[in-house]
Amino acid sequence: MNNFQYFNPTKVVFGIGEYKQLGSEVKMYGSSALLIEQEGPLEEMGVFRQAIDYMESCGVNVFELKGITSNPKLSKIEEGIQFVKENKIEVIVAVGGGSSIDTAKAIAFGAPVDTDVWDFFERKRQIEKSLPVIAVSTISATGAETSCHCVVTNDRSEDCTKWQKWAVHDSFAFPKTAIIDPDLLKTVPKRLTAAGMADTISHVIEGYFDGVPDNPVSDRIGEGIVMTVLESDGVLEDLGNTSKRGALSWAATLAMSGLQDCGRSNAGFPAHWIQHAVGAMTDSSHGEGLAVINPAWLEFENEKNPEKFVQFTQRVFGIERKEGMSDVEYGKLGLKALKDKFKSWGLPTTLRELGVKEEMFDEIAECVLDAPETYVFEKDHIIEVLKSCY
Prior knowledge:
- This protein has about 400 residues and is an alpha/beta fold.
- The protein is about 45% helix and about 10% strand.
- The longest helix has 19 residues, at about 190-210.
């Protein structure tokens, strides 16, 4: 394995009924909070009202920022930054999925400065400070509640095909506390639950197939996360099952906590960066996009370095290997089993289903190449991947 440093300062409060700890967690960091509220059923369910009650009961003055959408928009973040400055708010609280949490993170490190928050995403400036963020996860997907990542869509252009979905990776983006209450997840609809499951798996396998040998602990952790997701897919027919919801939520958190990436090359998340370009142009679901793009990307990786794919197929899916079958052929069986699983969950299998048109390929590839990420892409390879899953 490679040398590594591991750091994750986020406190996790996990369990049924632990949502009620929100007020006391926020109060440790200040007496005023901005509650980030994502569009959808959470308001109708009274989840935001509960959050306000929990905080107010602990003496916290609560302000609200409503209307957060999937693929969180820079325009809404800038609105939040201005509001925080005007009201001298001390803590940012996100209740929702990755969109809410990433919005909270961007506001938190954008509010203490007088410069353009997008400068951090363009790598023009380093983040030097941040307001404390408390994250309440209501979907098992991005793992944003304990990660150092923040993904935002720059929607300044009137032409949405010119939008940029870029990320910041910085220790200032770690939330102070993550509250994970499986009881909050039991009303997440089937489609979003499945998309989150694909997202969790993608967070593992993008780094897992890095070609770095002798990393047994990280491999087993990653395989265990993937197998937990696969073994918990009965939740799609029993959405209120808090036991399976709990397993999925902890799997999603661990997948993006950095723990299973220890000793890996960590060259980047290539399928994620391609999805970010697709998601920015089509406003399609992140998890659904990964269900299409990640297996397509990995099929090319299997051709180059099949050894790890053999391990994955054996350990995760337990598929019998026929005599004389090559490593590449056997690796393909594991990827097919994964794609079949995604399809059985009702996830899309082609870019067409995400709203992508073939004439967009060149622009998508250019968008990927323009993003300030560490992975070194070749444009022709990106287009090959897009064609293979179109």
